[in-house]
């Protein structure tokens, strides 16, 4: 197999096959594309004579996908998390402080 066999349309067809026939998710398709891009970036340095086809493969964009909605913790959940660290030990006080900081800065609280 040569770089001439691995052109952009072939790579695109393989990615489409993985998604349509094998049931891979868009995230998995993008992960595989990232690995292919990594290989072809390396190949661009080793085989400059195939720069044209390599650049076409590197130009294949990742597919967009919907991100899940960010869930926030309720007040009861925050209180339960803050109650877990043992504040009689140094590590427990540290953990409680870090968790309190996350809650106070809005990283773990419910929206108003």
Q: What's the number of domains? A: 2
Structural class by SSE content? mainly alpha
Q: Biggest sheet, open or closed, and with what strands and sense?
A: none
Low-pLDDT segments, ≥5 res: none
- List the total number of helices: 5
Number of strands: 0
Distance between the termini: 59 Å
Shape: elongated
Topology as a string of helices (H) and strands (E): HHHHH
The overall average pLDDT, rounded, is 88
Helix content: 55-70%
* Radius of gyration computed on alpha carbons: 24 Å
In summary, what is this structure?
The chain is mainly α.
Give your account of this protein's structure.
This protein is 59% helix and 0% strand. It is mostly helical. The chain has two domains: 8-58, no CATH class; 70-112, no CATH class. Helix 4 runs antiparallel to helix 5.
Set down the secondary structure blueprint.
Blueprint: H1 8-20, H2 26-46, H3 51-58, H4 75-83, H5 90-104
Helix pairs in contact: 1-2, 2-3, 4-5
What brief labels describe this structure?
single chain; 112 residues; mainly alpha
